[in-house]
Amino acid sequence: MLDWTDRHYRRFARELSRHAWLYTEMVNSGAILHGDKLRHLRFDEVENPLALQLGGSEPADLARCAKIAEDWGYDEVNLNVGCPSERVQSGSFGACLMLEPTLVSDCVKAMRDACGIDVTIKHRIGIDAVEDYGFLLNFVAEVHEAGCNTFIVHARNAILKGLSPKENREIPPLKYDYVYRLKRDLPQLEIIINGGIADHAAAQQHLQHVDGVMVGREAYHNAWMLAEVDRLYYGSDWQPESRHAAMRALRSYVEAELADGLPLRLFTRHILGLFQGMPGARQWRRTLSDAKLLKDAGWPLIEAALTEMRPAAVTEQEGSEP
């Protein structure tokens, strides 16, 4: 979710769900240690519960980042061992680290020793042509010995050469049974499943076998699915009154960011999917992605787009949305 789940998207998402666990985009440990910490780590406290996802393979560097995450107020630090991007591989981290479970274990131990928040791992079920379930089981078991108890498993292999990151999310077959089996074989661990999950019916089916579900791009492109999360999974009566209400609740946030110099387009790009599947959704997207309209624009542009969607709000309140 690099360049997607930035703080503006997460602030938007929090108006749709109070309880869903949010994750940052993956941040290279070097960028935190030697770059602009405010840019990479800043978040609004209402985003919690929130996990900082790290990329890296140097135990000492990751340990320092884990402590920084704790000091900044993150609830969890997650090590990405699943990204197949060649850019990530060139830095010797991401999915290629599944071939080095001892190094991953060293990283986990160093991070756990450095901080008091949860240290978790996100990974694939295999690498390239390695499709044996035993490879997955051995990797998780060894990393668990270092102190990791939560594993977020993307149920596809990562193909390190020849496929783009997008193709890596679509071409390698999903093997949900591997993740289910992992939970059966290591029941003491928290196993969270990821990959190709597009609706709540599928999520609830997976929860018959594992402890949690991670949804990425579907929750980005069809953000309103988050509006049911608190009721379905957290026993909460809270949910946003409507898409319009959720959007208008962000007005003060947006205006404060604009006053701080944020171009409106860096926010509106995250809300294009709010009305996915609703009448007028195409016009909503067109208005809020029009470079000419966005230039020097402020909240009134969003308000105008919301007003154009008014008929959809009536449909929604009547409970007849598609």
UniProtKB/TrEMBL annotation:
The active site is at C83 (proton donor). It is an enzyme of class 1 (oxidoreductase). InterPro entries: Aldolase_TIM, DUS-like_FMN-bd, DUS_fam, DusA, tRNA_hU_synthase_CS. Pfam families: Dus. It comes from the Bacteria. Keywords: Flavoprotein, FMN, NADP, Nucleotide-binding, Oxidoreductase, RNA-binding, tRNA processing, tRNA-binding. It catalyses: 5,6-dihydrouridine(20a) in tRNA + NADP(+) = uridine(20a) in tRNA + NADPH + H(+); 5,6-dihydrouridine(20) in tRNA + NADP(+) = uridine(20) in tRNA + NADPH + H(+); 5,6-dihydrouridine(20a) in tRNA + NAD(+) = uridine(20a) in tRNA + NADH + H(+); 5,6-dihydrouridine(20) in tRNA + NAD(+) = uridine(20) in tRNA + NADH + H(+). GO terms for molecular function: flavin adenine dinucleotide binding; FMN binding; tRNA binding; tRNA-dihydrouridine20 synthase activity; tRNA-dihydrouridine20a synthase activity. FMN binds at Q53, K122, H154, N194, G195, G196, G216, R217. Belongs to the dus family. Belongs to the Dus family. DusA subfamily. Catalyzes the synthesis of 5,6-dihydrouridine (D), a modified base found in the D-loop of most tRNAs, via the reduction of the C5-C6 double bond in target uridines. Specifically modifies U20 and U20a in tRNAs. This is tRNA-dihydrouridine(20/20a) synthase. It comes from Andreprevotia lacus DSM 23236. The gene is dusA.
